[in-house]
Structures are given as structure tokens and as C-alpha cells.
Amino acid sequence: MGDTEKDLNKDRLALVLEAAGLDLWENDLVTGQVTYKATKTFRELGFAEDEMASGLEDIFALFHPGDLERVRQAVADHVAGATPQYRAEFRLRSKAGEWIWFANYGRIMDRNTDTPGKRLIGVTFNIHDRKQQEDEIAQINRQLVEQNQLLQELNAALELLAAHDALTGLSNRRTLMNLGANECKRSERFGHPVSVLVVDIDLFKAVNDAWGHLAGDRVICAVANACAARKRSGVDIVARFGGEEFVIVLPETGGTSALHVAETLRREIAAMRVPVNDAGACVSVTVSIGVATLQQGCSYDFEALINRADTALYRAKGTGRNAVYCADVPPGAPAAMHVLREPGEDAAGALTA
Q1: Annotated catalytic residue, options 5, 44, 134, 244
Q2: 220 partner at 20 to 30 Å CA-CA among 116, 188, 253, 277?
Q3: Residue 55 has pLDDT above 70, yes or no
Q4: Is this prediction's pTM over 0.70?
Q5: Is the pLDDT at 32 greater than 90, yes or no?
Q6: In this structure, are residues 245 and 198 in contact, taking their beta carbons and an 8 Å threshold?
Q7: Is 244 assigned a catalytic role?
């Protein structure tokens, strides 16, 4: 090939590299010398021609410390024959001190000679815009992950708020009706009883009238806590039904057991003294409780079971309050009042300061 043809091919190669934004370089890995400098890259970094010639002999001094080992390893892998080409992405420090992203692509051209590695030829090209876009996308993705996590937490909090009473933390009426209906279906399927207690604070209006609504809220919370304390974790359902009324659902519990649970709860509440202000004033309150049980073979649903217990509650109220009444009696027997009090215990609820 004549010199003219060689010069023409050289010009063609230079034109192709320039059009593609590529910067040709060649290194002698045996001696460690740079035999052909990537001058275009140095110009992009802000260095003048004389600075390239005199001050940039150690090209690795320009590499970001966090990228240098990765570049060295990529070269070593290619020299060892582990990779067919040398590829690496890295940051170089510009004259102004900024870190600019570049990429290398190269190959050992003399691998089959006695001294392989004297001619590692490759190209360098600027990938800074692409890396910035990748970083922006990665940041956006991280923000999306964080926002999705926050959204899930907010949704969980909203679901919790939607399912629970804000004042007492107990299940609210909607949750009660859903869970209770499912429990009745399960009771019917497996043939075990389910009982319901409807608990109402006696003479609650007198508390609000005497001490104010904040004191009334304290009383409601105290009774709610007493109801919740009777709950078998993962089994029973305790809910605020509305106002000063609560419902306790006792799965796999017959009428006799439910009646004793109700009576124990009635006594515990009657023994409480609830602080109603910061001055130390307390009130004592009582509750009336209606009990109803869904036995095997009964055809009514959870709402009907609640209504039966609610009817029993108002029968208990009619006896003078502070009482437990069971709606369920043996077939054919007259309706009966079940009031389980200690001898001499007063039926009427007392309100004391």
C-alpha cells in the first residue's frame, strides 16, 4: 500500500472517529507508556496542548478514586484473556475540578506475538449526559419507591382509622358488623355457638351533665379498656357500637359461659373509680349487659343476634340497671331475668365525686 493510500485511510479513520465522537488511543502495557494520547478527551477536560504534553504523563492521576480499581481490573481481565474486549466506565477530573464520565472500549492487538500487550488500542468517548440521565432516573425511581412506601403506610393508617373507633381504639361498628357476620357463618359451618354481649353505661348522661363531655370521654375509655381486657387475643371481637354502648363477640362460647363473662365484667366496672379531671375527682359508673347466643340450628344472622342481645340489655335496664340479662332460655320456658349479684348488692348504679 502506497503512502498516499495510507494517508487517505488515516484521514478516513480520523473522520469516522470524529463523527462518532470517539477518541483513539494506544497504550504499551509492557512498558506502561502511552504511545498515542486521547487528545480529544483532554481537550474536553479543559487541558491545552502544552499541558497534555508536559503535565499529563500519569493518566491514572485523573481517574476518580472510586473508579480506578474497576478500570485496572477490566484491563487485567482482558490481558488475562477473561474478556474478549476491554470495557470500562469511569470519571475523569477536568481542569476545573469537575468529574466527567467517560467510557473506554479497546482490545489487545498483538496477543499472538512474543510480547502481547504492547499494543492495547481503543477509543474513549464521553458518556456524561447518559450517566446524568441514569442518575436522574435512579433518583426518580428511589423517590418513587419512597413515595410508594409512604403511600402504603398512609393507606395502612387510613385502613386502621377506618376500622377503629377514634376515641377508644376499639373496632368500630362497621368492622364489628363485618367480622361478626363472618363469625356467624363460621359458627354455622362448624356447629359451635357464638355469643354476643351488648354493654351500655348506666345513667351516662348524668356524667356529661355533671362533669362535662371530656369527663364523659374518660368514662367511655375506661369502660372500653375494661371490655378489651376481657378479650381473648385473636378470638374475641370488642367494638364500640355507638355512644356509650359496646359489643363483645365471643366465638365458641355458649350462653352459660357468656353470662359469667358478662357478670364478671359488670362487677369489675362497678368497682372502678374513673378520674374525670386533673383535680382528682372520680366517678363510679355501672353497666347493664344483654347476652344472646347463636346456637347450632338457629337461622338468624349476626344483626338479628345483636338485636336479641340489645333487647335483653333493655330488659336489664328495666330491672333497675347494673344487671345482666340473658335473652336465651330453654325452649318453651318463660323469659327469665338472670341477675347475678352478691347478696345485699345494690342494683342501682351510684354516681360519686
Answers
A1: 244
A2: 253
A3: no
A4: no
A5: no
A6: yes
A7: yes
